[in-house]
Each structure stands twice: as C-alpha cells, then as structure tokens.
Amino acid sequence: MTDLPETRSTKKLGLVIDLDTCVGCHACVVACKAWNTENYGAALADTDAHGAAPSGAFVNRIHSYEVTGDGAPRIVHFPKSCLHCEDAPCVTVCPTGASYKRAEDGIVLVNEDQCIGCGLCAWACPYGAREQDPVAKVMKKCTLCVDRIDNENLPEADRIPACVRTCPSKARHFGDLGDPDSHVSQLVEARGGMDLAPEQGTRPVNKYLPPRPKEDEIDVLAPLLAPVAEEPKGWLGWLDRALDRLG
Amino acid sequence: MHPAASLILFSTLSGAGFGLLALIGAGLARTTGWAGLAEAALAFALAIAGLAASTFHLGRPERALKAFREWRSSWLSREAWLAAATLSIMAITTLIRLAGLPALPLGLVGSALALATVAATAMIYAQLRTVPRWNHWTTPAIFLGHALTAGTLLAGHRLPAAILLAALAVAQFAAWHAGDRRTGATTRESATGLGPRVRPFEAPHTSDNYLTREMVFVVARKHRVRLRSIGLVLAYLAPLACLAIPPAPLALPLAALLHIGGTLIVRWLFFADAEHTVALYYR
Ligand code: SF4
Ligand code: SF4
Ligand code: SF4
C-alpha cells in the first residue's frame, strides 16, 4: 500500500546533521556503504570498482559548498541522505507498493522484492536520496539502519545508524524528532534546525543545524597574539640595546 | 532528465496507437471490413509496441505486472490499468464490428479510456514537483494533442489533421516558451539552507553516478534551439505540407510517418530539456 500511513504514531525517527561541525571526512559514507553491503537487502554494488570509471550506489553522500558573505569565506560540508519525509512523494508515486513509510516510526523503506526498478521514486525525491543499484537493479535508500536500531544482538552503543556511530566529530545525531523532549529535538530547538527545500512540501523529518557565525570566535586567542611593542621595554629593551651596541 | 530511448518510443508509439484507438472507438475511422481490421491492427500494434518498449526502462522487467497494484495513489499504476482496460474493450468492440454489428456505446467507452490512458502517461511526468518544466497542465495537454493528431493522420482525415497539426505546432511552441521561464520555487539557497551566496565546491563523488546520469542531464543551449527547429519542421510543418499535396495515396501515410518521426525528436527534448531539483546540489 503506497498511500502514506493514515494513522501514525507520534514517533518520527530521523537524523540531525550539524553543518557546523561536519569536517567532510566521508567516514559516515564508508560506514554506511559497508553496513549496507553486508546486511539489509541487496548489497550496495559498484561497477568497474578498480577500473578507469568506477561508479556505484551510495545512500549517504557528502557535498561541499563554498559560502561567501560579509565575513571570511568558508567551506561547508553537506552530508545528504534520505530525510524520511512526512509527506514523502517517493512513496505515493510507487506503482507496486515497494516504497512505504512505516507507521510505527516514520522510516521510509523499500521492499526490494516488490521493486520493479522503474525509478519513478528517485525522480519524485527532490533531494537525490534514492539510487538504483547497478547490479540488483532495485531502488536503494537510507534505512536509518533498521537492522541496527532494533537489533538486540548488538551492544546497546551500536543500536544507532552506522553513520552516527562512526562520525568522529559528532556531527550526526539520531533520535525521535516527534518527541519535543528528545535530545535531537532539543538540539534543533537550540540551534535553529532547518528543513531542506521546504517549498517542495515534503516536510522532512531530518533537520540540518546551520553553521554558526564565525566572527566572534576568531578573536578568542587574539589578545595572546598582540604585536610586539615598537619600543621594547624591560628585559627585551635591554637585549635590544645590547644587540645594537654589538653593532 | 536522461532521454531514455525506451520512454521516448513508449510515449510516442503508444500515444499514436491510443490516439487512433480513440478515433476508432468513437466510430471516426474505418471500422468495418478489411480496412477496419487493418486500422485496428495498426492501432493495437502501435499501442502494444510502445508498452513493450516501456518495460525496457524497468530495472526488473520480469516483475512488471506488480505495477498494477497501487492504482489508488500512483499514476504509473493507473496508466497500466487504463491501458489494459482500453486494449480489452477495444478488442471486443473491434470483434463486434467486424461481425457486422453496431458497437458505438462500447466504442465510446473505449475511446474515453484511450484518452485517459494518454492523460495518465502524461500525469506521471506532470505530477513531479521536482521537475518544474513538466509540473504543469500543458504536459497532459500536449500529450493528448499529439495522440489525437497522430490518430487523425492515421485514420486518414485530411482537413482535421491539418488543423490539428497547425494548432499543435503553436501549442508546442508556446509550451516550450512557457517551460523555459518556469524554474520552480526551489533554488540552491533553499535546497542547502546556506544563504544566497553558496556555490558547489566539491561533488560527493569523482565519477558519475545514478543521480547524475538520470537527472543531471543538460542539452547544450545551441543544440536545444536547433533541435526544436528540426522538431517543429518534422513533426508539424512537413506533414502539413504533405497534406497540401492534392489527394494522392501516399500523401497521408507520408504525413503520418513524418509526424511520428518528428514527435520522437520532440519527446527527446521533452526529457532532455527538463531539469530536476537535484541538479541544484551539483551545479
Ligand atoms: S528524502 Fe527523498 S527518498 Fe527520502 S522520504 Fe524524502 S522524498 Fe523520499
Ligand atoms: S523503483 Fe521500485 S520503489 Fe521506486 S517507484 Fe519503482 S517500483 Fe517503487
Ligand atoms: S563522518 Fe561526520 S564529520 Fe565525517 S563527513 Fe560524515 S558527518 Fe561529516
């Protein structure tokens, strides 16, 4: 059934991504690819992996942007994966019912056995969050690691998406965005978390924390770097004069 | 968007086939005797060839029948149902007529279903908010216009076909013009949330991928103008000129052939011209 679920729980699992702290290391991309190649569904395949034109399916990718403004220009690394939209257009266009949104927690998934590989859901997604697997020819997308977050066989600390678990700069946060008291909702509240392309009407669950303004921070160490006095005094003054006398 | 040969063939051939079926159903084409049989056979062949071509676009064509499931929400599924319903009803209509019995009421149902099929095909594209050029009522209008024009040419109605060709040329030109200015509400700024002065510094991957191959496809502007001119001439003006030749047995089939050939180019542009919002993340 590819209508969106009519009755939903208040639970909305998703990611909060901090554009201020992401350093663009792509560790989450590798962790995602590795986990999703060994577990849930068809392996995320590559073509010509060791040849001249390697290509492959990834469901988490990091863009980098240059942002110029009044202050110094800066590079912002921009991780992008499925936003698990509340009004997911990718779900309603699917002719087979392969694409669906889970009523109990809002995760958007693909039942790969039912997918005919028509690609329409990838066309309907404004964010480029879906890629057809080049070998299995079915649609792949971020599952929020459904096979980790509910997996009792894993240690408690690992029951979060692979990307969140691996991020060295803690730029990725996972939790229930439907609960205003959860740590992710609090983060969004405190940092002004935003939706990507809100005018598309998709109502994304994932939120992005904008980069903090840099101006104030540049000055923290500045007093320690005050320039050397033009006319040295004290011990430095004596040294200066002594060296001068040596000719 | 990537102009896939399978989709261009599908929408062009099926469009012409369902257009002709719409005319046959309404009794506006030869419906009896050998001529009627030949006309119906041509319509079925075009429609079915197009549908067969469309399965080549699927990653898993062996599962194509699953597409019938979600007609309540999906235009692709509705199109599958409408196509199947049209073909069955028109097959029955044709058999009744070949037996020399009247079948206009059933034919009219088939005719309406044939047009609905073409409209559903167009809605697969027109529903996509991610592709501003398609996301407009002109998309179903142009698809229906092509289906009816091709149908009328194939049914051999000289004057109506000439009028439709002229009208369609103007409509297609206007749709291109309007589409050029319809950029949609999404910008790089809204897509990234990074303010007005943001530009791509580095892509996430070093070679192409599914997204760039499928959705970040652009035609060079100079080619666009050239191809539009070729399309206009081949799809509309050349067939029009053919129809002006005094009645000769070859004029109509030649006009129909030129029109369908030209429609292939116009459809190529329909895909190649269309830009997807995901391109904003790359360019
Ligand atoms: S980000 Fe794209 S794939 Fe994910 S739910 Fe939203 S529309 Fe669907
Ligand atoms: S590619 Fe698969 S999941 Fe996507 S719309 Fe087609 S059948 Fe549904
Ligand atoms: S692992 Fe963390 S810091 Fe590295 S690219 Fe991913 S989100 Fe950014």
TrEMBL record, chain A:
Domain annotation 4Fe-4S ferredoxin-type: ranges: 13-43, 73-104, 106-135
The protein's name in its UniProt record: Tetrathionate reductase subunit B
PROSITE patterns, per database record: 4FE4S_FER_1, 4FE4S_FER_2
Species assigned in the record: Palleronia marisminoris
Superkingdom to which the source organism belongs: Bacteria
Keywords carried by this UniProt record: 4Fe-4S, Iron, Iron-sulfur, Metal-binding
A Gene Ontology molecular function term of the record: 4 iron, 4 sulfur cluster binding
Keyword Signal part of the UniProt annotation: no
Species classification: Bacteria, Pseudomonadati, Pseudomonadota, Alphaproteobacteria, Rhodobacterales
This protein's record includes keyword Iron-sulfur: yes
TrEMBL record, chain B:
Statement: the UniProt record of this protein carries the keyword Transmembrane: yes
Phylogenetic lineage: Bacteria, Pseudomonadati, Pseudomonadota, Alphaproteobacteria, Rhodobacterales
A single GO cellular-component term on record: plasma membrane
One Pfam family linked to the record: DmsC
Transmembrane stretches, start-end: 7-28, 40-59, 80-100, 106-125, 137-155, 161-179, 230-248, 254-274
Keywords for this protein: Membrane, Transmembrane, Transmembrane helix
InterPro entries membership: DmsC
Domain of life: Bacteria
Protein known as: DMSO reductase anchor subunit (DmsC)
Gene3D superfamilies: Formate dehydrogenase/DMSO reductase domain
GO MF, one example: dimethyl sulfoxide reductase activity
BP GO terms, sorted: anaerobic electron transport chain
